[in-house]
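#onboarding

Welcome to the new folks! Below is a worked example of what a typical request in this channel looks like: someone posts a single protein sequence, and someone else replies with the predicted structure as tokens. Don't worry about understanding the tokens yet, we'll cover that in week two.

Example request:
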Amino acid sequence: MTERNQRNFLVRLWLGFWRGLTAFRIAVFNILFLIVLALIIKFIFSPGGQIVVQEGTTLVIEPKGMMVEQYTGDPVERLINEALGQSVPETRLRDVVAALDRAREDDDIAQVLVRTDELWNVGPGIGKELARLFDEFRASGKPVIAHGGFLGQSQYFLASLADEIWLDTDGLVVLEGYGRFRSYFREGLEKLDVDINLFRVGEYKSAMEPYIRDDMSDEAREAAEYYMGSLWQEYLEQVAMNRGMPLEHLARIVDSQPELLEAANGDSAAMALEQGLVDRLVSRPEVRAELARTGHPDDDTGFRQISFQDYLQVPERPAVGEDKVGVIVAQGVILDGEHPPGSIGSDTVSRLIREAGKDDSIKAVVLRVDSPGGSAFGSEVIRRELMALREAGKPVVVSMGNLAASGGYWIAMGADEVWAHPSTITGSIGIFGMIPTFQNTLAKIGVYNDGVGTTPLAGAFQPGRELPDEAGRMLQSIIENGYGDFIDLVAEHRQMSFEEVDEVARGRVWSGSQALDRGLVDQLGNLDDAVAAAARQAGLGDDFEKVYVERKLGAFESFVMEMTGQTLARLDVKIESGMYGLLPRTTRARIEQDLRLLKETAEARRPSVMAHCLCGVPD
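Example response:
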């Protein structure tokens, strides 16, 4: 290399380094700028001093996005994503529960307004929790009013929990019934020459069907129709009871919506009022005026009000009891190792279980499960930690939320008792393994894979190579053995025979009430029922406190959360681009979930056994 070429090379190297450093500096600056901006916004718009609730205040419950057990992601990461418009809005169930529980005994709260327009979805399990919560609140004698412009299935369920439903004068009520539709990729993967090497046990284990079929199998259709029929019946019964109307009348309305709308000349609001689905047609200005009369007028907002998020910031008297029941939330797909909230990292949840075991004030633990499963190994890690906690003398109860299937059911086997909602989706006892390979896809662009190995298995799991027969036989054997282990585990914990478990297993999904009939769960009830059961097992009586066992925030995270509060969470920025953005959000989420599993399986470059159910909460 000549001296001039060497000098040019060093110059290019230095310029490349400097550009990279500049990009990093800009990224860091942007993050700091967002934090400073949030602090400025909070300073400008937040009321000074402590929040005070005045007499005649209306508590406003306005859930945004998805109702969840816990927020997805680490706190600082979530705040930044929200500021950039890259997160899905979420509302924690526990916050709504806490606000209504406090408001029930608060003489300054005169009434509750439920706004439904920002809500996306409420799963059947969470719906049952909310039904119990509103029943208890209404017993206080304080009125609950629900108002919305569009009442789809989830929004209408929430609204039905109120004393009265007020629909906007130009509003819509649409009840579709439950459905579960997925995208199937077989033909597309064939066109790309992707080989899907699938190993599974159980004719009802349909989690991987999208990769090997273009439509739903008869077995999957049979199972889905059975459990969704049960869930839909639960929905109709709950709503009919809430509205004080005969079940047959509500079912007839749902089945006859086209005819009823045509008779009302397409006026959905008038049809809903005539059929008794809503109580009044009220515009937003009329809502403000009405609530000002029944509550307390306010010059700025029409009526004196406080959001449930702000209400939770009002100081509360500390709990009297010293004994505690710890609640650990296990929400999302089960993965090996450490993962933030929104996923169930086997090491992350295991650490929380151990922390609860070391805390002498926590006398019992409730594991709240909302999961379709995932890694079989990760599921077993969590189950063993629960068993160790039980052996140390602390009772463990599992409370199933919307979904506790496959690996989500596996971890429940570590508990003394298993509670589910009648509408929980559970079961799917089965496992599978999948390895996609892309040798034909790469060959289309002239890329090939070749080499040598010391055994037939050397390099067997590289995604750029065809899977050897030896590896396929090995994996099928592992899957069959894993299924047997799963059945043995359930049989041991549920005191059933292998044959009895196999009869209700084979990957089939059940509703909570169906699971109870088949001996897969112990009791039907909500989270508080499970907490009370854990307290009874620990001999605590009624004098105890329910606490959530969660990862403690670091110093920087605590600073950011304290300073920004809910400011960024209230910024509603949505960014959609391209034709993909035109798809319904549920469709996009499901496609992304399916393809993410395919991507993660290919990137693993090793065989993995999955106890995963793509059954999901029906739309």
